[in-house]
Amino acid sequence: MEYTHLGRSGLSVSRLVLGTMNFGPQTSEADSHAIMDRAHQHGINFFDTANVYGVTPGDGVTEEIIGRWFATGGRRRDKTVLATKAYLPTGDGPNESFLSALHIRRACEASLKRLRTDYIDLYQMHHIDRNTPWEEVWEAFSVLRQQGKVLYFGSSNFAGWHIAQAQEAARSRHFLGLVSEQSRYNLMTRWAELEVLPAARAYGLGLIPWGPLNGGVLAGVLRKQKQGGSPRGGSGRAAVALGHHLETIAAYEKLCAGIGEEPAHVGLAWLLAQNGVTGPIIGPRTVGHLEGSLRALQLTLDDGTLAELDRLFPAPAPNGAKPAPEAYAW
């Protein structure tokens, strides 16, 4: 397993992140435990979850599954860099969502209880809260750190200017601030390259892409359909994206076949090759899915393949593959 520092921090994390969103809704507790055990066997130490993941949004089932796995011993907690999130509603009350000091405190305590641990390695804001001042957010976070309940803080789904706001507010308090940003980023969704990724690099945040295969569309969906399967990318929002980009996806799968690699592995390997990316989140539903993802760590895409991927999935910039403001100015 290859490891890297999480942003500018000294924390070492694996270059694949185990996403746990399927634990409970689609994967049984026994299979979830097996996936986490196998992840450790392969050296994956970075696990991502959220307080709202579960059978019903906000029920905390996924954190509870992880907590019971920790409780089985074997130094499982010590071997894990544990990341969870707060922001989304956990109930119907007016203070059971967003990022007020009250909700942050309650949400953290509830996650610690469900996860059966006394600290969280990386506590992430699941979304920007436009109505709570940064002074309040960082004050609440500093208390958690002083209490030893959280070690590092991260953001998710932030714009570039939100990252700048957060970091400047933290700097004024002489606080470390954010060390990571979790953003939607894949070959088909490259908007992060305009401002989020440059801001993350400038402020020393590691980028953690979620949805690295765009809901399964980049995982060989057309080939699986021809083989009579029921691929994940064939339904919901992914099906809509596939309908709009059918020819491009067909060309992508042909390119992957030409180099003898699975489309899913190529999509992950492309992300791993991007400057500033810590590691994409993989969300296996089975041990087999987890095993398959490991190939991406061994795959180095040559310059010709990278250029062809850029041609198929161009950066979102009328002036070519440049970050803002050059992307839309001069």
Automatic annotation (TrEMBL):
InterPro entries: AKR_Detox_Biosynth, NAD(P)_OxRdtase_dom_sf, NADP_OxRdtase_dom. Residues 15-311 form the NADP-dependent oxidoreductase domain. Pfam families: Aldo_ket_red (PF00248). Gene3D superfamilies: NADP-dependent oxidoreductase domain (3.20.20.100). It comes from the Bacteria. This is Aldo/keto reductase. It comes from Streptomyces musisoli. The lineage of its organism: Bacteria, Bacillati, Actinomycetota, Actinomycetes, Kitasatosporales.
